[in-house]
Amino acid sequence: MKLSLRQRTQPEVNLTSLIDVVLLLLIFFMVSTSFVKQSQITIRLPEAESTAIVEEVPEQIDIMITATGMYLVNGRELINNRAETIRNALQKTSGGNNNLPLTISADANAKHQDVITAMDVAGRLGFTQISIATVNDPVE
After folding, report:
1. pLDDT per residue as tens digits for the range 12-55
2. Helix (H) or strand (E) holding 105
3. Position 121 in a domain
4. Structural domain of residue 92, as residue ranges?
5. Residue 75 lies in a domain
6. pLDDT, tens digit, for every residue of 63-105?
7. Does 2 score more than 80 pLDDT?
8. Would 70 be classed as within a structural domain?
9. What's 98's domain CATH number?
10. How many domains, the chain?
11. How far are the Cα atoms of 9, 15, 67, 106, 108 from residue 111, in angstroms, in the given order?
């Protein structure tokens, strides 16, 4: 008995009907889609009336004393090391608020009298939260 093998035919997928369906869906969605223009809201933003610059009072005041006896209040060097100059600088920086914490940072080689002068001026102005720190590197 001789058995012969039949040739198998490759299955075919007919894409014509699939393309027709996709095309019909595309046409349906294009026709049924409504293009609505979004409504717009007009907004008037407020504008500033005054352009005055308000000087901000710092949250803390730092007095630095260098080894040469120069005073720096919040990083600004004072003209001289007289008590009146220190007092004026502290009043201007604090804006009259003597409840701000005040830190006196002195160089390790600064004179003790310079630190006492800064403490005395701050105490006379009514500052009660005074801290003292030392700095190893001189600021010049």
Report:
1. 878 888 899 999 999 998 888 877 666 777 888 888 777 666 66
2. strand 102-107
3. yes
4. 61-135
5. yes
6. 999 989 899 999 899 999 899 999 999 999 888 888 888 999 9
7. no
8. yes
9. 3.30.420.270
10. 1
11. 107, 97, 7, 9, 9
